[in-house]
Amino acid sequence: MKALLVSGGLSMLIALFGTPLFIRLLVKKQYGQFIRQDGPTAHFTKRGTPTMGGVVIIVATILGWAGGLLLTGTKPTASAGLLLFLMTGLGLVGFLDDFIKISRQRSLGLSPIAKIIGQGVVGIAFAIAALQFPNPHGLTPAAMHISFIRDTKANLAFAGAAVGLVLFVIWANFLITAWSNAVNLTDGLDGLATGASLFVFGAYVMVGVWQRNQTCQLLATVGPRCYETRDPQALAVVAAAITGALFGFLWWNASPAKIFMGDTGSLALGGALAGISILTRTEILAAIIGGLFVVEVLSDVIQIGFFKMTGRRAFRMAPLHHHFELRGWGEVTIVIRFWIIAGLFVMLGLGIFYAEWVTG
Questions:
Q1: Global pTM value
Q2: Residue among 97, 142, 27, 152 nearest 268 (CA)
Q3: Opening angle at CA 342, ends 338 and 348, nearest 5
Q4: Which one of 102, 104, 282, 291 is separated from 49 by 20 to 30 angstroms, measured CA to CA?
Q5: If you average pLDDT over every residue of the chain, what do you get?
């Protein structure tokens, strides 16, 4: 518990005081955001705002996590290392995307194929490694089961270990790509994705702590009242570090934003969400806890599908937050109301998580 508190507090301080320093560096280098011409006209005033703020989130998370372990004498674990690898790896892909946009002053960064390859390399490496590193109880960080609140009976290794590995890599990369794109789509208004992510990773701090207190390894039993998770406390510490970093970054990212997280931050946070859902065995539950991100993606899918079928738009603009902008809602109003929705989804997800344990 001490490592959790120290990591969260340290990462928050690093992000809070490190972000303005990074802003000065970006301003000096003239690394500002390029605004798409087909978006809401109110966004044109944001042109030139420093971006790539995800660098601060990633660095604060890693330093906060490492500092928490060092100051409390806690040993690092395979699960935490894998989660940070996935977050950092996708953040690097996002950084390259952001840098190309800024350096060439255009709204397009990496080509779609290059981005897919980058995400795929990181995702495949994560998926394969997650099935290694068994602990003394034989548990690996991930398992070849599709999980809801815990592993279900849907075993991807039904036709053998080799087929199971391939299917798990495909499944894990689907989740990684889906969550990365979901957070990326949500990152369209000042503080929206940061605040929503803060709710979600805060919830995963609670999930990790609860799983740690009810782990089958600690209780020396197996059944519906315990969790087969390899390193739940270590995952909670990483989630706390991410949450702290988001708190510190939000101070500068709230409207009017002094800096944007960019693809560097959105891809990193989406990857972290996918990774922690896989490692805590809550892959389907994550779609409820992160329900706001799912709604944003669905609005984009509906918009494209409806237009192809009818030639008309279901929304004035997608994703959904832009629809309300064009209807005249103020940016701050949209962000706060979407934060409320994100909080409601988090409460629903945590309620389901706890109710499942209570009912056994």
A1: 0.93
A2: 97
A3: 145
A4: 291
A5: 91
